[in-house]
Amino acid sequence: MTTVHEHPTAAELSVWPASTTESPYGDLAVGGVPLAEVADRFGTPVYVLDEAEVRDRCRAYLNAFPDADVLYAAKAFLCRAMARWTAEEGLGLDVCSAGELELAVTTGFPAERIVLHGNAKSPRDLETALRLGVGRIVIDSPAEIARLAAAVGPDGRQKVMIRVAPGIAAGGHEKIRTGTDDQKFGLSIADGHAQYAITRILDQPQLELTGLHCHLGSQITTVKPYLVAVRRLVGLMARLYEQHGLVLPELDLGGGHGIAHRPGEPALDLTALARRVRAELAGACATAGLPVPRLIVEPGRAIAGPAGIALYRVLSVKRTGDHVFVAVDGGMSDNPRPALYGVRYAPRLTGRTGTAERARVTVVGRHCEAGDVLAADAELPADVRPGDLLAVPVAGAYQLSMASGYNLVGRPPLVAVRNGHARLLIRRESLADLRSRDVGL
Q1: Buried b (16+ CB within 10 A) or exposed e, 227-260
Q2: What gap in Å lies between CA 192 and CA 188, rounded to an integer?
Q3: Which residue numbers are catalytic?
Q4: Among 168, 282, 269, 278, which Cα is nearest to 228's?
Q5: 211 within 8 A of 253, measured Cβ to Cβ
Q6: What is the reported pTM?
Q7: Which of 268, 264, 293 is nearest to 278 (CA)?
Q8: Vertex 331, ends 316 and 436: CA angle to 5°?
Q9: pLDDT for 371-382, tens place per residue?
């Protein structure tokens, strides 16, 4: 075991919600609510979402992109409260299934402010989008064109965008890079498939093409890939104008804005992104002799991720050779991202101070997989023991939204905190919930 003789510093809270405070006794509070109280009241594992942090991040995007449409990417995490908060803050919504769409609309989210995309939309997805009056449908393959036109009907009209692959490799892991020509999303500019699909869309009077869409990937921490994407998409827009006299009014650059999961990690500079993308877009359009289209951006993780905290109880501490394994009561069923993408987190002990000495440990989950590791090389007090409470920051995106029923442990609840109050948004999944779906014998 490697022991680190360092006390926790204020820098460790840099990836936590702005409302986070720490008492002299080691108690962390978020939104004015001690995390230990949340764990005692709602049990563990439990997820905590800071409402004020979500709203502040929505406003930061609107301030950075005052002349653009900002759509929250629901796949990062969606519940009825999240839909309401983002709607109240003036954001649109980006969904990729009938389930996400119906949850948002039945919560009161205006359908005209919603964009539906996905590489393989089901008939139900398209039927639901048309029935509810979704604002845009992003076409992702040639096969969707005729299917969508037929579903709209001869007297209908639906605004659509087309997702193109600009041939740009960007993102924090090969599994989340979606702007290249060799993956399942979009239509390539380089091989002409995007241009061909656009010609087919223009032949369908039921479909109104409003713009181009691209999404480069996830966890992008530099501005350059977005600038390259702007140049390539404006180049395509220029060719469309030359060939068809077509002037597209919208350009959607997707999201993928990287955030730090641990102190010291890089994150995308939102202010620099907005300033340089707007300048690049204006310059490229001026060179091409085109009017500047309305920009659309789709942040998901950058809004939800830093607003969430996961709380776990330590179940056991096992020393094996030079390794210390700290096992908790959750794991890959509520957070598969370390196993999928190698994401690293920085858990903190809360509820007591612990010793001054800190040890490097591996925080593991309770599931029957060797890959069920929540945090490798984590620094925790050397006296960490069963019953301790661990808090993991930056847990608001792609954790509960990707949670599974593995080992039938049930998915954790979600609690919102704000101004000293905690309220349950999503209850814990019970054995009765799991049993109710098991209808055969």
Answers
A1: bbbbebbbebbbbbeeeeeeebebbbbbbbbbbb
A2: 6
A3: 368
A4: 168
A5: no
A6: 0.93
A7: 293
A8: 115
A9: 999 999 899 999
